[in-house]
């Protein structure tokens, strides 16, 4: 009976260690300052809460296809980004307007 309790105790400790390790690996290191949606890389975008590699690629592909983001709310066109998710992202993203194009002098 003692042996069974010791084994159960040891298994409980091992399971707790695995759960703690899994939980710590699931946490992201959030960006120290807001990321500019018009210049951020896929790797940088994956630091955002709720944004994995595929969603980060979708953001960059949208930017490349449709041009620079005009406002943060433009993220709503990305599949999987809802209004609720946008509210979680808002503190970590920004949009810097593109530099105005200068017309060549004639």
In words, what does this structure look like?
The chain is mainly alpha-helical and 106 residues long. It has a domain at 35-94: DNA polymerase, domain 1 (Orthogonal Bundle). It contains four helices and two strands; from the N terminus they run H-E-H-H-H-E. It has helices spanning 2-26, 42-45, 53-66, 83-89; strands spanning 35-36, 93-94. The protein has a two-stranded parallel sheet with strand order 1-2. The model is unreliable at 17-25 (pLDDT under 50).
Keywords:
mainly alpha, 106 residues, two-stranded parallel ribbon, DNA polymerase, domain 1, 4 helices
Per CATH, the architecture of the domain at 35-94 is Orthogonal Bundle
Q: According to CATH, what is the class of the domain at 35-94? A: Mainly Alpha
Determine the structural class based on helices, strands and strand pairing: mainly alpha
- Summarize model confidence as the mean pLDDT: 83
What's the tally of helices? Answer: 4
Portion in beta strands: under 5%
Estimate the global geometry from the Cα principal axes. elongated
Strand order of the largest sheet: 1-2
- Give the CA-CA distance, first to last residue: 95 Å
Order of helices and strands: HEHHHE
Biggest sheet descriptor = 2 strands, parallel
- Can you count the beta strands? 2
Oligomer: single chain
| Poorly predicted sequence stretches spanning 5 or more consecutive residues | 17-25
Explain the layout of strands and helices:
Elements: H1 2-26, E1 35-36, H2 42-45, H3 53-66, H4 83-89, E2 93-94
Parallel strand pairs: 1-2
């Amino acid at each position: 009976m003692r042996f069974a309790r010791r084994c159960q105790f040891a298994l409980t400790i091992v399971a707790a260690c695995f759960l703690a390790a899994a939980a710590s690996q699931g946490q992201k290191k959030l960006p120290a300052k807001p990321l500019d949606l018009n210049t951020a890389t896929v790797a940088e975008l994956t630091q955002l809460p709720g944004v994995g590699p595929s969603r980060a690629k979708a953001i960059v592909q949208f930017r490349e296809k449709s041009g620079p983001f005009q406002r943060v709310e433009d993220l709503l066109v990305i599949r999987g980004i809802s209004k609720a998710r946008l509210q979680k992202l808002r503190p970590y993203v920004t949009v810097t307007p593109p530099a105005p194009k200068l017309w060549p002098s004639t």
